[in-house]
Amino acid sequence: MSAGTTEEPPGGRQAVAVWSIGTLVYMVAVVHRTSLGVAGIDAAARFHIGASALSTFSILQLLVYAGMQIPVGLMVDRLGTKRVLSIGIILFTVGQLGFALSHSYGMALTARAVLGCGDAMTFVSVLRLGSRWFPARRGPMIAQGAALFGVAGNLMSTVLLARLLHSAGWTPTFVGTALGGALVLVLVLLFMKDHPEGFEPAPADHHGAGYVKRQIATAWREPGTRLGMWVHFTTQFSAMVFLLLWGLPYLVEAQGMSRETAGTLLTVVVIANMVFGMIFGQVIGRHHGARMPLALGVIGATAAMWAVVLSWPQAHAPLWLLLLLCVVLGSSGPASMIGFDFARPANPPERFGTASGIVNVGGFTASMLMLLAIGVLLDATGDNYRVAWSSVFVLQALGVTQILRLRGRVARLERQRVAVSRVESVHVPAST
């Protein structure tokens, strides 16, 4: 088969093996990303900082992550997955190691920025890898499957790192997680391939500023790309902020829980994420029209649960209600993956990395804004978590407005593409 074929890759065992290495890299990156979520209180004591300064760790990390998404998408389209993942592993490993050895706030901030830069190179690369090794109909399952590996990394943070931090201390815990990066780098260098034999991407002009501007502009002009970004923006941030930094302090300081019980509730979010991911992948794979109802349903359920919890008349909400909140928050990650499934059919494979980067900017920008809002509001109100968490409704309202504005146009364009594809399949003979 000649280079630049337009036929879909067949999948198979080799595809699963190569893709599994990529998703393992993503899992390790998520362990690094979310490790601060169980160490927020320890970090505040270690660096002698308050709520706003503690938020700055995650804000800076996500600022770098979000700012890198479009450049990373361009890099993946231009350099291939293996090279970009290798660079990412080196960066997030160095960042985590630096964080482990930091004794000053400034050095720790720098380490988290480096970690965020490396982390930014993983998920878009894994999505691109899946699109090169599997047929398009597997897209929803591939995206949800990659997200499940990320959830496994989050689970390792909430269960294992919390215990290690308590027993082994700060430096051994974070140095130990950094060693995982060295292991996955060896696997990538030895066994990863960008695409199956005979399914090389079509040749493209990757030189000059014109290529960069053209890729970004063309991807952005597609309404499906923009809709995907706003779906990602509106669904992801609430659970991410809860797991990344402010969930544990909220449950301990505002709800009066022990750290062990609070850690268990964080684990509930992660496990629910895994369950919803498997369900959503199956449903969307079989019923493509379920994407928008699922996304809007998750947004509505999340808003309703936060409204009930934050308006509870007693100082502490009952355990069953907080447990239900955590289960609903677990649906946010899988719902955010739906954003990529709006962008995928709107963009050809050679532009999917760039489009995925644009989509991924959405949720991490919202998370960064939420982290900043909570830190500032906590300092301004004397640690009033009800006021601080109420900022969730502002971002949800913004996102829903954009989703409703774009969804009709995207639906019409997708119907047109399906109609054209059916006509072409009738009139163009199959390849031999």
Please explain how this structure is put together.
This protein is 80% helix and 0% strand. The relative contact order is 0.15. With 432 residues, it is mainly α. The N and C termini lie close together (10 Å). The chain has one domain (13-194, 210-424): MFS general substrate transporter like domains (Growth Hormone, Chain: A), CATH 1.20.1250. The model is unreliable at 1-5 and 428-432 (pLDDT under 50). The protein is built from 17 helices and no strands.
Task: Summarize the topology.
Blueprint: H1 13-34, H2 40-47, H3 51-79, H4 81-101, H5 105-119, H6 123-133, H7 139-167, H8 170-191, H9 208-221, H10 223-254, H11 259-286, H12 291-310, H13 319-329, H14 332-343, H15 352-381, H16 385-389, H17 392-427
Figure out the total of helices: 17
Would you identify the CATH H-level superfamily? Answer: MFS general substrate transporter like domains
H/E element sequence: HHHHHHHHHHHHHHHHH
How many separate domains? 1
CATH topology: Growth Hormone, Chain: A
Low-pLDDT ranges = 1-5, 428-432
Beta-strand content estimate: under 5%
Terminal CA distance: 10 Å
Helix fraction? over 70%
Counting DSSP E segments of at least 2 residues, the number of strands comes to 0
- Architecture (CATH level 2) name: Up-down Bundle
Shape: globular
Largest sheet descriptor: none
Q: Report the mean per-residue pLDDT as an integer.
A: 86
CATH class: Mainly Alpha
Quaternary structure of the protein: single chain
Radius of gyration: 21 Å
- Helix/strand-derived category reads mainly alpha
